[in-house]
């Protein structure tokens, strides 16, 4: 095997020299070592380095190609020699006289194995194997392979002699396969001989070190020759590349003729080496300035001394004739390696005159930019006026007063009456000023004052000297004199107007220690006030729209809680900081002293959300009048939302859809203490038992309104007396600082107290969980439960027999007498008789009667039929149809509600009724 060549590890290239470094230095740096200079000069950017690399690459390519060709040729010759040796050994053994005879013997292996090994060693091959006519090994250098079948010898079995490079078992090899024939030319066996492929290139591998060594020597000699040529080229080109040499002359011409800054290069002895056109113009140099000493140029003593000193100078202003030149001087030594210096000259005559004005303008722009960032951060009119005063003091004025119209402060449209304003903001650099305080009414009635003039002209008015101006004293002579005595000497009055409508007045004042206002200050004051006017007008319009939206929403919300005895209810509604939203609640009394509690949330904020909330609340009120179950009511509400949204989409208007609104509808029955709830995408309620334990019951949740495709389900809760049911919208528990889970934990800890009233619970939730200005509107409803006294409930099961009506009527009369309600006994018996007779005649069992006593008296008759009676005007000839008419005349309210099985017809009577209906009038109406 040939050994692996080892290459010496390349050393790191030395760091480049400092010849082209751009860092300034006041002292000459030491020259780098010679090797370092050569390494730096042989950079690939130089022409010498490029030539050297080109020659080295050519030599490397030629040597590599030659070495590769020799290796390939050697490999080819070695493989060809192996084929010839293998073929000679196989043919010699196959044609030997005893080979065919041994193949016919009973044990050819014993006869041929020694001979095959002898031939293998004598021929210098790796193996000689004898195969039978079927390719089975009879002899092999490896005894374990005897008896195995050889691969790829089919051609020899057909009588063909061939050589090949074999890949397979037992090893890759260059082999020859020769058939053994008998006298009749029939193949009776085969002989294969070969050399393992790994040993084919053994001779070549022994020659590789010599071959690679010769190639390396040739490469080194060629590289050395190229290096000598490149070194000589390096000296002639000074280490520059072709592009750099071209750019050098281009830059030289640009510096001489195109640069608008004077450039003067002096040698170490003070003579001029180069002066461009701009330097000749600025310094008035003579035409023959080149090679003359700097003292002979007539530059003046100061500038001449500066150039001869040879020290680095940055932007030092020196006079040169009637010009002021900014001079920069740098020594050449640290950069070019030679003694001397480079001086540049820039004309700053006009720049110096403009620099003060530019700095002043920059300061004013910065001030206006800061004002734009600080004014109008809130949508509050008063706070915006205060921000205007805070920005202007002390950067622009010592004192600032802001007056606004009362209509603007109220958020209303400003009127043309601008001669009375309310002082809204005052800012001063020091206390004790004589200006009127915030809240005073300021009148502008004297035509000669600067304020009135500014209002009349619609532009700012400047009074540079208040001592000599007498017109401004006419309004308040005493106050004007106090201001002068305090030191105020100059002012600017600017009308505060937006959309060509006056909103107020802003006055800027300066006092002792500050310069007077000038005309340039007027433009800044007008720009500042104009920006503030837009912010104040936006705040005013927002306040008006917000007040309108809040008024609208509060008018759409319940104005008060209805009177009822079964729930102690407290509620809160808090609008969002950014505007009203669509959160709402409702408390709806239902027949049988039941109460419906509703909480909902509309997507979005603003006027449209408030209107949408009103539409949904009205729909819920209408649906609740049908006395539907909570899940049925939400189903009808969902259908209505879907229908309205489809109409809105087809109308192509810009109203937001109702889809996505959430609602929770609960019905509490004080007779058995059960509460039935159904919710559409809304958060579930919290329940606090009489001991103060808080639970969030797992109630069925349906999608928000308008989604469709899903049925609504209802859940039931058993609420003992004294329990509290807390219904709320997501604004109560969720905000930017906490998520829903954290909000629910805080809500649970806040309401977990026994014996709290509904109002106390409401107050604790608002104080604990809500900031002063919540980011989302909040609707909150807390109901503390009560049960109807069992003595105020009476029920009878009635058989489906008309003869049972008198008995039930008698029992009802006795119960009314026990309750002390004899005055309503006649009307109640009449109502009961009609309802019970209809239930027995037209309904289905079971029939049941129930009396409920509370604020009113409720009579309920239920049966198993779903057929609802209908009130109609009976004709004179009709025998029936007058029963419900009598019920409607004697009862204050009556109606029908459906249960899981059957229906309930109810009639309610007030207990404070002054008189019964006149039977005679009823007979006249009925035609009797």
TrEMBL record:
PPM-type phosphatase domain ranges (all copies): 564-785
Membrane topology annotation: Multi-pass membrane protein
Alphabetical list of CDD domains matching this protein: HATPase_RsbW-like (cd16936)
Compositionally biased intervals (Basic residues): 1-10, 27-37
UniProt domain GAF: residue ranges: 380-546
Region (Disordered): 1-40
InterPro entries documented for this protein: Bact_Sigma-Reg (IPR052016), GAF (IPR003018), GAF-like_dom_sf (IPR029016), HATPase_C_sf (IPR036890), HATPase_dom (IPR003594), PAS-like_dom_sf (IPR035965), PPM-type-like_dom_sf (IPR036457), PPM-type_phosphatase-like_dom (IPR001932)
UniProt KW keywords: ATP-binding, Cell membrane, Hydrolase, Kinase, Membrane, Nucleotide-binding, Phosphoprotein, Transferase, Transmembrane, Transmembrane helix, Two-component regulatory system
Subcellular location per the Swiss-Prot or TrEMBL entry: Cell membrane
Official protein name in the record: SpoIIE family protein phosphatase/ATP-binding protein
Protein source organism: Streptomyces rameus
Organismal lineage: Bacteria, Bacillati, Actinomycetota, Actinomycetes, Kitasatosporales
